[in-house]
Amino acid sequence: MPFINFFRQRLRSRLLAFAVLTLVVLGPAARGQVSPGEHAKHHPGQAGAAEKGGGKGGGMMGGGKGGGMMGGGGKGGGMGGMMEKMGAPKPKEMYPKLMDLPDLPLEERAQIEQEAQQRMVDGTALLSAGLDELSNAAAFDDFASMQNATAKMREGLAQFESGLAATRALAEGKAPRNVALRWFKREMNMLPPASGEPGFLFFGMTFFHTSVMAVLIAFMAAMIWMYFFKMRRAAALLEKLTTAAPATGAAPAARSVAGGAARTPIPPATAARAPASPNAAGSAATSPATTKPAGAAADCCDDSADECATEDAASDRADISQGLLRIAKRKLCRLRVASIYQETVDVKTFRLVACHGGGIPFSYLPGQFLTLTLPVGEKPIRRSYTISSSPTQGYYCEITVKREDQGAGSRYLHDTVKEGDTLEVQAPSGKFIFTGKEADSVVLIGGGVGITPMMSITRALTDMEWRGDIYFLVACRDPEHFIFAAELNRLQERHPHLHLHVAMSRLEKEVDGYQRGRLSKELLVEWVPDITSKWIHICGAPPMMDSTKQMLSELGVPAEKIHLENFGSQQKPRVQAAERKEASIAAPVETAATVNFSTSGKSIQFLPEETILEASERVGVDIDYSCRTGMCGVCTVKLLAGAVTMEVEDGLEPDDKAAGMILACQAKAAGDVTVEA
Q1: How far apart, in whole angstroms, are the C-alpha atoms of residue 393 and residue 117?
Q2: Nearest-CA neighbor of 634 among 245, 375, 250?
Q3: Which residues, other chains included, contact 48 with Cβ-Cβ below 8 Å and sequence gap of 6+?
Q4: How far apart are CA 577 and CA 608, in angstroms?
Q5: Using one digit for the tens of pLDDT, what is the confidence trace for 246-267?
Q6: Which uninterrupted H or E stretch holds 17?
Q7: What whole-number distance in Å separates Cα of residue 470 and Cα of residue 498?
Q8: pLDDT of 191-238, one tens digit each?
């Protein structure tokens, strides 16, 4: 068989090389010899024990009846007999002599050395003979002969090792007993066949094991360092994202609002590129809107020096929270239009995100509005739109806008702005808010597009799992114009504290639980139990709000529990101002009263029935405004001298009035006045 022949050739060549090397190392056995008789004269007992293997007692290494530990003869057999039964080669008489070696005379030591060398020669002969027998038996597949040959080789190896151990003990001066004991342990597989003494040890470990442990410890330390390094970089990046300043802002303007029921995303290709708004310096030039990719990392607010109004330490009301999320220090900025959803035929929702990534750069309260500066016409216009999303969503905010044929801002948003464009914004503001801390239940009445702030409040309260009752009353024309219908029905299913009721004026018959007809006093009593004790918010067109407020007063609801937000036409006050200006140009009629603006150092005489805000626009003094109807409170200025009259003061708090604040859009004067603007 080929593999047996290959094995035979390799084994024979290696054994012969080993034997030749051994003989070369040992050299000729030219050493002095001492006769056994002369040794017996000096150690008669030991000589007999050494030659015969011990008497009856059988010493430790003897071989008599008792069988010494290493003895090879006698009935007991000692360790030698035990080893022979276990398959170990019989040590004969060499190892018992090693046990007595320190006590032997010089001539006996020479004799043992001669015997040791002879055993090495005999062992080599047995190895060679066994190898020949193994080769012959392997050629004929004689397995019995092969086993006998291996036994002979084992016996030759045992003789060779015993002679080698004795020679080594004599040459190195080691204790023969230790040599004999190590041989015994090795034969019994009790000791690894180490060729030398152990080297460097560190806490019981060899140099190799110590090196491996050191490498593992270094690797572990490197991994820990990398972990902390990555955590520090992540923390630094997060801090950069949360503290990066977003772009230029501007003052608030007229408000528009709307919402949506079933959202339909609008592809970016459906809208044209939007023009950009001017920077905070007040540039009147128009240019294309800045378009940022979705993953834009650049901070688009670096050139702004103004900060968001939400950073004021004091709240507009002392009895409500400062915001549902932590208010961070941010500048006025531009927000990117991430998505556009078609809510109804004439209503879209614009989702705005921070153009530099991360969370939006401000916090707000449910019911507040966001002011945009839009590059429409020769001079940018400012419009404010109620935020319809919940302030619990810190990574985006949404405005829901109805397209008005006469609304320049809403037409621009619907017809021009597309996904990816950026819009210049100012921090949210407004006092038409409800956070859940003002009362233990609330009634939200929204007419048409006035549903938008109510949706923000409802989303926030349900997100927070507020346990108070929410009575959401909607007044609209028909199901096609019911904004947020699908979401409100889903929220009502999930939140048992939300009670949704809808009245549709143009509904021919009741369908899907919607009430046919307009909102009435009877429906208010039916839908809201104990309505006189409830906190009520109303938002919609002025006629709707006036009629609803009248019905609530007739039901006995206290006036301080009714809160209004005007979502009527916001262009009428400005149109009226333009008409008065045109009339004054054609036939100038000025009153004797003059308004002085202390901060800007300008002054101008009033036109008949002109407000301070309208006079400021004629003389070029910039006063922030939004609704121009006295509801939002954005145009608040301080009256330093003189007296004014105001038709609407809903935008002022009692503390504002006590501090001398007035609404510029409502304030008219019969005499000279001075304001801080």
Answers
A1: 94
A2: 250
A3: 40, 55
A4: 10
A5: 433 333 333 333 334 455 555 5
A6: helix 2-26
A7: 5
A8: 555 555 555 666 767 778 888 888 999 999 999 999 988 888 888 887
